[in-house]
Amino acid sequence: MVELTRTVRLCVNDPVEDRGRLSSAETAVSNAYSAWPAMRGLGRYYEVTVGYVGEPDAETGYLVDIKLIDRVVRDRGMTVMNSAIGSGEPVAVDAVVAGLLEAVGPEIGVGVRWVELGLTPGLRVRAVRDAEDVLMVLMTQTFEFSAAHRLFLRDRSDAENAELFGKCANPAGHGHNYRLDVTVACDAGGDARLPMAEALDAWVDRWVIEALDHKHLNVDVQAFESLNPSVEHIAQVVWGLLEGRVEALGAGVRLDEVRVWETGKTSCRYRGPAGAVNLGG
What is a single molecular function from GO for this protein (predicted)? Predict the structure, then answer.
């Protein structure tokens, strides 16, 4: 089994901007890399990503025609987006993304497992069907913090630590600009709702960013008195800071995953004691 992802960039524009012009549907796609429909005035920019799972065709090597994904998202997906934005009512983003999955999935094929809506460079909302066909919605927000640390084991000599950790064992420590992705989830179709982005932001800021930002992890953070502050341990500590407080985000909301990026090439994803810890590429 393989998973193919395809991202469709599009803009939802104010109808006022279309007055006297051909609609986007009536004009040829000329720059899908940037976005199509293209931006008119102060429109809204989104990225819709589709995840498709299955076995590639033995002859063509294709899992699904990506042009089909593009066409369906710009047709059925735009209908969902325009309806939500033009309703005049507050928009429940989790319901919209669940609606996107239900709208485009049957048109593209049975292999569609999830659809994700990119709202900002850091904020994404995904609707996914699990192995039991339960529809879930997940929100991921990106944060940053800066911190210093030293990698060393207290029961080893300086020479042994230098052998194990290289320059990272420097007694003076060193710093990183960390990036943090926090994902929360709830089941779709019930009373549970994903939090507003500002609520998620404030929650993570209070319990994680204030605890770790501009701190020397070995010295200033109690959790690392007995833990070597590797990126793996940092991810587990972040989970611990959040998991017991998730009820503040609303009934039915649960912490799904944290991912800590130490550099652009090294990250660790953690999903709790029953989940797996995986180094990212």
Answer: 6-carboxytetrahydropterin synthase activity
3-state secondary structure (DSSP) of residue 259:
strand
How many domains are contained in the chain?
2
Q: Is 214 a catalytic residue?
A: yes
Backbone angles phi, psi at 275, to 5 degrees: -95, -175
Phi-psi region of 41 (alpha: psi -120 to 50; beta: other; left: phi over 0): left
Residue 134 lies in a domain: no
Which residue intervals of 122-165 are DSSP H helices?
A: 158-165
pTM of the model: 0.89
216 is a catalytic site residue: no
Catalytic residue among 47, 102, 107, 168: 168
**Could you say which of 214, 216, 225, 268 is catalytic?**
214
Q: Residue 37, preceding bond cis, omega within 30 degrees?
A: yes
Structure tokens at 99: 């609606």
Half-sphere exposure of 125 (CA within 13 A, CB side): 23
Residue 236 lies in a domain: yes
Is 262 in the active site?
yes
* Phi, psi for 101 (deg, rounded to 5): -60, -45
2 shares its domain with 64: yes
**Tens of pLDDT, residues 188-237:** 877 889 999 999 999 999 999 999 999 999 999 999 988 999 999 999 99
Query: Does residue 7 sit within a domain?
Result: yes
